[in-house]
Amino acid sequence: MTWYTLLVLAVAVERLAELVVARRNAAWTRARDGVEHGRGHYPVMVVLHTGLLAGCLLEPLLADRPFLPALGWPALALALLAQALRWWCITTLGPYWNTRVIVVPGARLVGDGPYRLLRHPNYVAVVVEGAALPLVHSAWITATVFTLADAVLLTVRVRCENAALTRAAPA
């Protein structure tokens, strides 16, 4: 459980790094008349993602979940690939990336990196990580609850993003 705890803590530190980048990028986009959309769902997203990390640590302890190599190692590989995809998205979007939905009116949509393949590759990373990270240590309840709750949240989030991007995109 020690190495898994370190893994989850490393993901938590990574999330804090994302928030630092997001804050810097928010200032950059707001300085260019960026407009925030979907403020109402943002606190729900924070609670859900915090709950994922807490569940990853609590479920294996409280339910005495073992590390199952046949499940844990592939789940770890998927969780690491999700992190790589997440940072590919962040670096591709540069100052336009954010944990919030902030768009600069008139800015062109980014079509490079993973965005040339998918419209929302960052959410592929979220979905994969949300299932894989808990399963590294057999936390299947956490994986299931997060996945179901995140499906609802992502429905709202993707609609919000698509609408904001459509309104802001140049004609």
UniProtKB/TrEMBL annotation:
Its main location: membrane. It is a multi-pass membrane protein. It holds the Pfam family ICMT. Keywords: Membrane, Transmembrane, Transmembrane helix. It comes from the Bacteria. Gene3D superfamilies: 1.20.120.1630. It is found in: Membrane. InterPro entries: ICMT_MeTrfase, Metal_cation-efflux_comp. The keyword Membrane applies. PANTHER family: BLL3993 PROTEIN. This is Isoprenylcysteine carboxylmethyltransferase family protein. It comes from Streptomyces prasinosporus. The lineage of its organism: Bacteria, Bacillati, Actinomycetota, Actinomycetes, Kitasatosporales.
